[in-house]
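#struct-queue
[09:14] JT: dropping the first one here, sequence first, then the structure tokens:
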Amino acid sequence: MELRHLRALVAVAEEGHFGRAAARLHLSQPPVSQAIKELEAELGQRLFERSSRRIALTPAGEEALRDARAVLARTEALRQRGRDATLGQGGRLAVGFISLAAYAWLPGALRAFTGAHPRVRLALVESTTDQMLGELDSGALDLGAVFAGPGLPASLAYRPTQRDPLVVALPAGHALAALDRVPLARLADERFLAFERRHGPLMFDAMVSACLQHGFSPRLFPARQMHTIVSLVSGGIGVALVPACVQVLQRAGVVYRPLAGPTPTVEHGVAWRRDDDAPALQQFLACVPPLAD
């Protein structure tokens, strides 16, 4: 199997046409058709269903396409690092992050890293944990600031950076906003703004478990980003249990209060590929603060 086979697979799948795929690859059509035939023969599976009207991926083709994109992404990342080193630019580092990191340790780490390594080109992408884990594994990201969770692939290393108690975000005019500490059971009739579980399993589980321990199952309204959750709270759409570091996100119409009694915590940290020994990555990890006791 060669890279030309993988490039042909991606081009044909995305173009849906052998002729257009060939033009995209700056080839004539026969070499592209031959590359697909060779790849199908090597894999022992049909990758495309062909008819006079259309070309469509088979289920095996869908799986092969995902793998091909990952291999090509890693190959391009390797080439880019080589080009950057040749040009004396110190390489490139792609960092994904959940918003919690931006409210906590990430700004300080970025200041320290860019000050010490100005030639490294940083690419920053705000994302969700589930999205970043796949992009780390494929090589699209070099490091991700993620929620801790049970779904970490074996190919990734992980280091915790922070554990936060949950606090409740309330609309400023809410009756419970006058309390110094809010009993969770008093929120049983509220609508809870929260991540979907796939975006942060431990965050979701900590919230739901705390509610269940106080005798109720929360009515959930899903959102993808923490700043969206806080904005919806300010609009009176509901309440939210959020990590304490989110309190730096001050928004008119929102107040934060600690919970009464035992308080669940959530953990977030950094993840990266175990086999990635790129200098830029190691230099960035040196700027990430250790977990505070």
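[09:21] JT: and here's the second one, same format:
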Amino acid sequence: MTVRRVPIGTVNVDAITEAQVVHRVRDTWQDGGWILTANVDIVRAISRDRDLVQLASTATMTVADGMPLVWAGRIAGEDIPERVTGCSLLFTLTDAAARDGQSVFILGGSPGVPERAAAALQARSPGLRIAGTAAPAVGFDSSPDALQAVIDSVVLAQPNLVLIGMGFPKQELMIRRLRSVLPNAWYIGCGAAIPMASGDSRRAPEAMQRLGLEWLHRLVHEPRRLARRYLRDDLPFAISLLAGAAVRRVLK
């Protein structure tokens, strides 16, 4: 399947639907790969760091996990068919894994969260095989021994799909490490999707998702943690992305 890649800032986003993402993964369980779920915050972070630009370029698929990216593509005349979120892919990919007899490892979240997410996903997709779960302590990646212990636990489990919820870029850096020793698995950095799957947090209503206002839902529920990031950093950057897309359209 040939998919167009649409430049959005310093990231090339695949013009792909969620169904096509799942189909591609199901066709290549044996090959492995990784999915970058790019939103405004992630694109902004990548635009400021050459190492992250290089890291993002190695993704097997990059999906638009944020309506501003979809809008930017459309404004530039490069249609991105839909928003594809890590929160949604967590369910559709684990459902595909259950149907195909593939196993899943859930990595990230507070203690108990990965286990609750695993139970919820198994209830939703009967037959889903959970290869393992882990909730590493904060700062584990700064300790070589703790980091290696996490890597070893995933490799020993030999999963076909690894869900990692640690936030960007920690989860993507972990994916790079794991792919070097377990290359034939599929990986997705899914941020806050694991606690959402476990029921520890709630996703925005569908109407807000369709309008591109999921960020507002999260801001209302976590103002102290997210206000600075969303309002001071991400909102101006999103506006610049849309303006840049308009300029590209005019210059075509």
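[09:30] RK: nice, looked through the second one.
[09:31] RK: Residues 5-198 form a domain with the Rossmann fold fold (CATH 3.40.50.10700).
[09:31] JT: good to know. The longest helix spans residues 223-251.
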